[in-house]
Amino acid sequence: MKGSARLSIALVACGLVALACAPIRTVSPPVAPPANVAPSASPSAASASVLESVNGISFERPSNWSRWQPNEHYPWNDGPLIYLSTDPLLSSCATAPEATPNPANSQGRACAWPLTELNPDGVLVTWLTTRILERLPTTGEKLEVNAAPAGIQITRPGDCGTIKADETIEVLVPIGQPTPLSNIAVVACLRGPDLAAAEAKLRTMLTSSTVQLGALAPRVGQAMSDASSPAPTPFVILSAVGVRAESDLGLTDEGYSAASGRITSSPGMTFPRHQPLATA
């Protein structure tokens, strides 16, 4: 019994020593879960669109559609106002926005096309003036542009096939006249393979656009002399943005056809005009 008692005492002692020598386990206090943090926009997402405002026209463009300044054109000719392109344009046809534009050619016009060929998935958008007022289309697909319904015409490849594009999109932009007329248009050339993505971006740009009526004042000058009008005659040419009505400029009805929505020439004159009213 004494041997058993000693053994029991020894085992108890060893157990106590083991407990005394065991490392103390610590328990970390509970940590509250982190609060929800809104994801920060990536640089690409933050710069997905760029707000532009030029020539009285404002819109949001994709960041990879660079803006270019077209060559000049005489005010009595139709011509480009703004270029947007994913591809570099010909230096002979366009300059950077802050640079001096190239002069018009001998016919008073800008380049017909500012590049020879679009790259795959390339886009060329041209804001332009038709110069003469044209009637807004009443049929076909409509898209809200400048806060009004505008007809959108899509052809494949259309005129843009000249630069190897697969699709041409044309929109005559409502400019807020009391009559359904406009002389501002957009022509977009899109090349595949991803036409759907490019067309979606174009539609977003168009719906974001606004046109400030009269931002570019009509140009007033002297008409060229001819056999029937030997003396220079005052005239007004509708420039980039059409006037709200001919009466806004104090004009007579001479040379204006409300039925066709066009400015017509008086006998012997070589270009459209309005006659200003006499001033007191």
Global Rg: 35 Å
The total count of strands amounts to 15
Q: CATH topology of the domain at 47-211, which one?
A: Protein Transport Mog1p, Chain A
State the distance separating the first and last CA atoms.
141 Å
Q: Which strand order spans the largest sheet, edge to edge or round the barrel?
A: 5-3-4-6-10-9-8-7
Examine the secondary-structure arrangement and name the CATH architecture of the domain at 47-211.
3-Layer(aba) Sandwich
Residue runs with pLDDT of under 50 for 5 or more positions: 1-46, 217-280
Shape: globular
Mean pLDDT: 72
Overall SS class: alpha+beta
CATH class identity of the domain at 47-211: Alpha Beta
* Tally of helical runs: 3
Share of residues in strands: 25-35%
Order of SSEs:
HHEEEEEEEEEEHEEEEE
Explain this structure.
The protein is built from three helices and 15 strands. The chain has an eight-stranded antiparallel beta sheet with strand order 5-3-4-6-10-9-8-7, with helices on one face. Residues 1-46 and 217-280 have low confidence and may be disordered. The N and C termini lie far apart (141 Å). It has helices spanning 2-21, 43-46, 195-208, and strands spanning 49-54, 57-62, 66-70, 79-85, 94-95, 123-135, 142-145, 148-155, 167-172, 181-190, 210-211, 219-222, 234-237, 256-257, 262-263. It is globular. It has a domain at 47-211: Protein Transport Mog1p, Chain A (3-Layer(aba) Sandwich), CATH 3.40.1000. With 280 residues, it is an alpha+beta fold.
